[in-house]
């Protein structure tokens, strides 16, 4: 009977009790099967959609983040090399990627607002489905509310900072996002008890990408003018998003063409690790292709300039720097001429 119940949970179908000897035992197993059906049909992350939805947002935010940082970097680079006459602020890393032009010609922190709104909607859904008789009865809903709350808080803080309501360093964005990622990692780490070995390893791979995101974020804070660390952070976020989709497809296949994985089979774990490496490779190639398109469309840098290692060479002087140097030289030259003329006049008077 226990084996039949485990097969029922793995296949996400209802358990039909076998004929038993007594009516009391039959009623007991019938009630137990109904309870299992209720738990399995409850909307939570234990479905394909529950993994695909957060994965989609990770993919959206990471691709938008890469596009925005490359746009700002290439435009600044083109301006420094005098290939563009449009002034561009100096490049600095940041977590949020606000639109440069929005309503009434002002910018709009669309990504931060979208992150806050979607997380608040997720919290509402988890609270509605997690309560029973005025009490929180589903621990999974509580964990999801905690994760959504941390990401919603980071989005709210980013929005308030953009509009100047909170006046502080831009690095505070990293602090709140680190808190959100750490919360996500801890919840994943202690969310796997009683799962199959395959289920545990699938989520541990996600935990590794969360740690990589945090490490690259710390590197961004200390070297804010180097885009490579922001690219690594967004790449690891992109891998989280695509792997969320893959985990949902492995654990909860919804189409007939999706393979059914055996969570207890020992060959399933190395097969999943091999599949994860393909996610790393494909996501990296996607970012490289995006960077190539951005360099051709927005960089406006010729072949010789593009061949230089941007991250190793010193920044070149801009037009403002050259103008300031020329003004300083003219001022010093005029001062020296005045001193020379006054000295000549004094000598003539004495003579």
Automatic annotation (TrEMBL):
Pfam families (UniProt xref): DUF716
One GO cellular component term noted in the UniProt record for this chain: membrane
Entry keyword Nucleus: no
Membrane topology type: Multi-pass membrane protein
Cellular localization per UniProt: Membrane
Entries under InterPro entries matching the protein: DUF716 (IPR006904), TMEM45 (IPR042127)
Keywords per UniProt: Membrane, Transmembrane, Transmembrane helix
Classification via PANTHER family: EPIDIDYMAL MEMBRANE PROTEIN E9-RELATED (PTHR16007), TRANSMEMBRANE PROTEIN 45B (PTHR16007:SF15)
Similarity remark: Belongs to the TMEM45 family.
Protein name: Uncharacterized protein
